[in-house]
Design a protein that fits this description.
The chain is an alpha/beta fold and 210 residues long. Helices cover 29% and strands 24% of the residues. Strands 5-4-3-6-7-11-10 form a 7-stranded mixed sheet, with helices on both faces. 37% of the residues are buried.
């Protein structure tokens, strides 16, 4: 049974620490190195949490400005260095992106924490703010055809709902339909360790229907 990941205090580093980030950083890096182009200038990370992903990935893409955001800004206050820009608070249901043009948006393990309403608001914002050719990378567990991909994910979903009835593992079909509605095309759906997936989208030339 997979338990809900808890932030643990790392007494050696004196900062919050997520074992999930530590486990998944290498597999995610292998995806990002395929998605990020040499000409890309800015990446927005949504739900940066402890900042471990920003710290690990940013030096590997030295031309890229990495913008970490999170609802709990205190997690991010210690990671502003190098190409990692000043951390900003971001609530997917309420806030707008920084007023910059982003080539990529990356988010890990957020969709099952947010309510489905928040997920839809976030996807709609992606459609409003990202231009043709921009990419979105979404990492985390998903259901397919109404089924969990493993018994551990089914148990994880129950534990999420016990903590917050509005959270839970999202259906890939729902996420994809909303992304397509906002002008995105699914480029890849990667199988990842620990029963996770990594969805990669690109923004098409698109005019929203009124």
């Amino acid at each position: 049974m997979v338990k809900t990941e808890q932030l643990m205090y790392n007494h050696f580093m004196e900062k919050p620490f997520s074992e999930a980030c530590e486990r998944n950083k290498e597999p995610i890096f292998e995806i990002l190195r395929e998605v990020i182009k040499p000409t890309d200038e800015r990446l927005l990370e949504v739900g940066a949490g402890t900042g471990q992903h920003a710290e690990y990935f940013s030096p590997k893409f030295p031309r890229l400005d990495w913008y970490p955001t999170d609802k709990n800004i205190i997690h991010l206050k210690d990671i502003e260095k190098g190409k990692i820009q000043k951390a900003q608070r971001f609530d997917a249901a309420k806030d707008d992106f920084p007023k910059l043009r982003f080539d990529l948006v990356f988010t890990a393990n957020t969709f099952h924490i947010m309510s489905w309403k928040e997920c839809k608001s976030f996807i709609k914002l992606l459609g409003h703010r990202l231009r043709e050719g921009s990419r979105v990378v979404i990492y985390g567990p998903f259901k397919y055809n109404g089924e969990f991909t493993s018994e551990s994910n089914a148990q994880f979903d129950l534990s999420l709902k016990e903590r917050d009835p509005q959270s839970g593992i999202r259906a890939f079909e729902d996420v994809n339909a909303n992304m397509v509605k906002q002008g995105f095309e699914l480029v890849d759906d990667h199988e990842m360790p620990s029963n996770n997936r990594c969805l990669v989208y690109t923004r098409l030339r698109f005019e929203a229907k009124h």
